[in-house]
Amino acid sequence: MRSVFRAFILMGAILIFGLSVTSVYGMKAAQSDDVTAGGRLYDKWFAALNVPAPEGNHPIWERQTSNTRSGAETWRCAECHGWDYKGSAGAYAAGSHFTGFPGVITLADDLSAEEIVGHLQGSKDPSHDFSAYLDESSMKQLAAFLKDGLLDADAFIDPVTLRVRDANLKNGEKLYSSVCAACHGTDGKTIVFRSEGVDEYLGTIAARDPYRFLHRTRFGVAGTSMPIGRDMGWSNRDGADVLGYVQANFVTGAEQAQVGNAGAGSASAAPVGEPAGGVAGGILTGIAAALGTLGVSAFFLLGFVALGFVVVWVFRRRK
Ligand code: HEC
Ligand code: HEC
């Protein structure tokens, strides 16, 4: 009986040791390989390189009028070519991100890495020349990402419901709680994102823009210390499982779909099965919260006044 018990303890110890070694190793491996580095450049190259964004709009931006963003955003590969890498043939086929610009997923297959670097130097279109901002090694990393880091989003995400297909929620939960919860909290609300003036949480982003979520789970967020799925050895399926777990369990706020509209950009972008009265509910919650805060302040104020009276009263009596 005791030896069985000891064996259990030993096995437990070995397991914990093994897990900690792999997780430390996983974090260390963050010296990104070219594909990962390219994925981060694709997200926001000026944040990844820690340089200021260029002034004004990208020169190609004036070829369209439908996407009304301006400045730094217009210089991001992802803003023109999409988080699903399909440009106007994917999630950006409509909605506020629509530009009509092409995706990179089919082209990147046909082009060699050298041709992609050439295109980033303006060989095909002088306006698509990034050589004033990106050196050759960054361009090679982008080419490596475009050649080997893309995925066909439709294999993981249903483009109509924006939900992950066949998510393994157990696997998603395991990965989320072992890595992501430390910063984002067990409900995904610890870090609050401001997106176009609206407060967002992990759950609302997972529902509204699952493609961006998946890209960032695979490659981290350029310019932050968020762990990089790819460097931890996660497969694309692992990333999708985490996304599916977040979609299924966290507050997704159906009302956000109308406000932000970044995902599919069509009416079908509203996540299925969410309550419709989200906006009214949100307003009521807001009012309730405001009243609550007022109540608490009033309580404290009264407390202070009462304390003041007591002090004055005590001093008066002493005289
Ligand atoms: C302002 C919008 C815009 C931005 C930003 C942008 N592209 Fe493009 N890209 C285009 C357009 C439009 C095309 C179609 C061909 C052309 O006119 O250049 C294109 C084409 C491409 C192609 C295909 C080349 C070919 O043979 O047709 C690749 C690869 C590419 N872009 C990669 C990138 C990468 C990597 C970045 C980020 C460093 C990026 N693009 C940033 C608009 C943009
Ligand atoms: C070390 C802390 C940390 C951990 C661990 C972490 N994150 Fe993050 N995460 C961040 C920070 C910081 C940001 C950027 C916040 C901002 O943009 O304001 C972020 C942003 C994100 C975003 C981007 C939201 C958007 O606006 O597009 C997603 C998606 C995300 N995290 C998912 C995850 C997932 C999934 C995991 C687990 C693999 C994870 N995070 C683990 C710190 C962390």
List the helices and strands and how they pair.
Elements: H1 2-28, H2 34-48, H3 77-81, H4 105-110, H5 113-120, H6 136-148, H7 169-184, E1 193-195, E2 198-200, H8 202-208, H9 210-219, H10 236-249, H11 254-259, H12 278-318
Antiparallel strand pairs: 1-2
Helix pairs in contact: 2-6, 2-9, 5-6, 7-10, 8-9, 8-10, 9-10
This protein binds heme C (2 copies).
What does this structure look like?
There is one protein chain. The protein has helices at residues 2-28, 34-48, 77-81, 105-110, 113-120, 136-148, 169-184, 202-208, 210-219, 236-249, 254-259, 278-318; strands spanning 193-195, 198-200. Strand 1 (193-195) and strand 2 (198-200) form a beta hairpin. It has 319 residues and is mainly α. It has a two-stranded antiparallel ribbon with strand order 1-2. It has three domains: 1-27; 31-150, no CATH class; 153-271, Cytochrome c-like domain (Cytochrome Bc1 Complex, Chain D, domain 2). It has twelve helices and two strands; from the N terminus they run H-H-H-H-H-H-H-E-E-H-H-H-H-H. Helix 8 (202-208) crosses helix 9. Bound molecules: heme C (HEC) (2 copies). One heme C binds next to helix 2, helix 3, helix 4, helix 5 and helix 6.
Summarize the structure.
This protein has helices at 2-28, 34-48, 77-81, 105-110, 113-120, 136-148, 169-184, 202-208, 210-219, 236-249, 254-259, 278-318; strands spanning 193-195, 198-200.
